[in-house]
Write a structure and sequence with these properties.
The chain has two domains: 52 residues, Orthogonal Bundle (DNA polymerase, domain 1), CATH 1.10.150.530; 281 residues, Aldolase class I (TIM Barrel), CATH 3.20.20.70. Helices cover 34% and strands 19% of the residues. It has twelve helices and twelve strands. It has a ten-stranded mixed sheet with strand order 1-2-3-4-7-8-9-10-11-12, with helices on one face. Strand 7, helix 6 and strand 8 form a beta-alpha-beta unit. Helix 5 crosses helix 6.
Amino acid sequence: MPCLNSSRPKTTLHLTDLTPAEIAAGLCIEPYQGRQVFRWLHRKRVFDYDDMSDLPTGLRKRLAETCPDHYLVPLETYCSPRTGTKKVLFRLADGETIESVVLRNRGRTSLCLSTQVGCPLKCVFCATGQSGFVRNLAPGEIVEQALRMLADEDLGGRTPNIVYMGMGEPFLNYDAVVRSVRLLMAKEGLEIGARKLTISTVGDVPGIALFSDEKWQVRLTISLHAANDALRSRLVPLNRKYPLDALMAAVHNYVKKTRRNVTFEWVLIDGVNDSRRDAKELAQLLSGLRTSVNLIPYNTVRGADFAPPPVAECRAFRNELVRRGLRATLRHERGRDIDAACGQLRRREAKASG
């Protein structure tokens, strides 16, 4: 990496994209100073160079002159008084917007990160899919979501869970996602343990194959939503390219190669995929896998002709899965009062500004 010269009027060096060694190389500073800068950004979540008090004055001035502003600017923050769920709408350097969510449950905190501006997959029940696809996020744009949200959180010394389950399909931005994972795991920064990290895919088979070769313990979740090709192709258009036979073959190969379990997500939609027949098909599809199913009542999206099932039906679906030998949990409603379903705030902001 060539050194940054402070006399150059412009630079594309974004510090949250870089490892400590890359920061040092890019700025032509000592390795320990690269680690200091990285710690200020990642561990202390300080974004104003003037506040990086153990850096020499000359280096702080140089950072301010030669490095661009950080990627993300918080535009709006919404907090649910009922559940503590918090959603943040960020503006990126090019004016695009993304969303991130803080979820709280029984003393645990999870951060939900976006990986793309919009999404190309157009799942019919998803607000992000309805808004179209703009571009992939850079690694630093992904990482900085976590850094910005944690700057305002008091975790009491606990490590948060981080889930790649926001806007976009992570495996369609594979290299940036993997790099962001490694930055979040870096010992000089947040030092998130691999098992605290989860990547969720709607079923990108090549991405699952690549992920099977990674030498780590990062968790994998499959957003399934239907257990037959006819229904799944209607809900998740990617299924037409990678039908269930191909998807499940990739999952079984992943389990065989990594010896790790896979979790499945199932958004329960009233009258669409919430019947006992659907539960039976799901149990048959997952037969032979050591797995669990997270059931998520549909979070209403404006403009989509879907609704969540009654609570009793959600519980009946879960109970049917359990009766058939699956581990299944029913997620409680969180964030409905602040439009916490993926992509809703971005759509609302786009309409207001357009």
